[in-house]
């Protein structure tokens, strides 16, 4: 009432979301880079490393798979 009404806010978007929405072809390039990194890490883990690095590479692999899910979800949400 009289200027005290709540104004609708635009939904929050991360920088990655804004970038992927403004440049649709960037999704394909980004997914290719992430896939190549994922394959490199998987090959390193298959060949075997010491225990310290094994845990670090495993954590990195989980992060990369989460990034792929986020990229796919952003592009579907548009």
Give your account of this protein's structure.
The chain has 78 residues and is mainly α. It has one domain. Helices cover 73% and strands 0% of the residues. It has helices spanning 15-22, 26-47, 51-77.
Oligomer: single chain
Specify the biggest β-sheet: none
Number of DSSP helical runs? 3
Strand content: under 5%
Q: Strand tally, please?
A: 0
Mean pLDDT, to the nearest integer, reads: 85
What is the straight-line distance between the termini?
34 Å
Low-pLDDT residue spans: none
Q: What is the N-to-C succession of helices and strands? A: HHH
Shape: elongated
Helix content: over 70%
| Gyration radius, rounded | 19 Å
Quickly give the structural class: mainly alpha
Overall tally of structural domains: 1
Topology:
Layout: H1 15-22, H2 26-47, H3 51-77
Helix pairs in contact: 2-3
Could you list some keywords that capture this structure?
single chain; 78 residues; mainly alpha; 3 helices; 73% helix; elongated
């Amino acid at each position: 009432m009289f200027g005290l009404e709540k104004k609708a806010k635009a939904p929050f978007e991360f920088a990655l979301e804004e970038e992927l929405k403004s440049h649709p072809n960037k999704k394909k390039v980004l997914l290719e880079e992430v896939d190549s990194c994922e394959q490199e890490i998987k090959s390193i883990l298959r060949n075997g490393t010491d225990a310290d690095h094994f845990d670090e590479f495993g954590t990195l692999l989980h992060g990369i798979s989460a990034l792929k899910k986020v990229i796919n979800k952003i592009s579907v949400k548009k």
